[in-house]
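Sanity check

After download, print the first record. It should look like this:
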Amino acid sequence: MLNQPPSCHVTRDGLAGILGEQTMECGPARDALIAGATFVVWDGLVPADRLAHTYRIRLRHTRKRGRPTLALAATVDRLLEAEDELLRIGQIVATDSSWTFMLFLNATATAVLACTGVARTESPADQGSERVVTTSLPW
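Expected structure tokens:
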């Protein structure tokens, strides 16, 4: 099949290893992963420039709402620089759900191009309410 990405199976240890080889921005994501966070690396490949557009919008929204982020602006810059490179997306959700980290890996999931995190903030109306977890792709 054309345009079919190679299957991607990334283990917790493997992902922790490649996160440890990257910039300091990946440290909190790696720490969360080692502490037992849930994680997924999706099989699909997405052009970096498409992701840059999406995450530039998210950057504006998080700034407008005052949500704490980790390296989101740097991630947008790296995605813009990568242009049409095909990337895999991964996600790590801290065990207490306080942070969600998005990972942008090369097509073979052997290196991390960028890593960002967004803190979960709850409004008083959200506290104590049931959380809905989705498994859709993050774009």
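If your output differs, re-run the checksum step. Summary of this record's structure: DSSP finds four helices and six strands in the chain.
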